[in-house]
Amino acid sequence: MIILTELNKPVFKPGDVVTLKVARMTEFGAFLDAGTGRTADDILLHKVQQLHSVAVGDEVQVYLYNDPKGRLTASMRLPQMKEGQIARVKVLNTSRDGAFVDIGAERGVFMPFSGMRGNLKKGDMVWVKLYRDKSGRPAVTMEVEDEMRRASRPATEAKVGDTVTGSVYNFTDQGAFLLTSERYIAFLHLNEMIKRPKVGEEVTARITFVRDDGRINVSTRPLKEEAIDTDAEKIMVLLQGRGGKMPYSDETGPEIIRQKFGISKAAFKRALGRLFRSGLVEQREGWTYLLKNNPDEAPVPANDETV
Fold this sequence. Notes:
Layout: E1 3-4, E2 10-11, E3 17-26, E4 29-32, E5 43-46, E6 59-66, E7 72-75, E8 86-94, E9 98-102, E10 109-112, E11 125-132, E12 138-141, H1 145-151, E13 163-171, E14 175-180, E15 185-189, E16 202-210, E17 216-219, H2 224-241, E18 245-246, H3 254-261, H4 265-277, E19 281-284, E20 287-290
Parallel strand pairs: 5-7, 15-17
Antiparallel strand pairs: 1-2, 3-4, 3-6, 4-5, 6-7, 8-9, 8-11, 9-10, 11-12, 13-14, 13-16, 14-15, 16-17, 18-20, 19-20
Helix pairs in contact: 2-4
């Protein structure tokens, strides 16, 4: 953002990418002409911020930022995104006030706490949008839904059963939204998760439905028959670890089932039904018990075609 004064002289701001002429050289770097007619306004391009040597009269494209003393400084390391754009970037560090992320420039860019989603830590990769805060400084936010819609494309070539990989850019009380490598918007419902991914995390999933609006629904759970075996094994492991009984049954609420087993109530009932029909368990007064005539290490039953 370049502001013109009443004398039509430019006033530069941190975050600007501009082309300036080298006005003079010193032993520790070059000073760039800020265009105000005042030598005191010249902007330092230190030797360590130069990607190649420069000379007086050269025009150099630079990124402007404030040094630790608040002085406007230049670097030839340009950011990899522009104002208004979105990108998946690395978190450099975090604090109580927010986080700093790497946009490819000389300095990390601040993400205020209000623009964060989830508990970020150093090294996380997250989707952000670059903007200017009220003071004119560059900043980023993880609120990128509108930009994702504009950047995405309809999944006209997608087929149910295909595998896609994408990164989570938003999480709601229903599930996670991802942007895949094909630029499809994918929705991963809570009931279709093996584990809850973090915002920014990369997820590989199977397409379960191609929607009329061009988006897709996906699942990280195995196919139903495989899932029943896996879920039945979870139940058996818990029963064996609790001495052959557990306070969970068909009557247990879905939230408790999800918290304890990481599966939906419907998936729990399917797996439990298989164990009933195989003679491995029984239910009494809201509890589930291993049948005494089965060994402690009873195997999970084979596929039951009637399920």
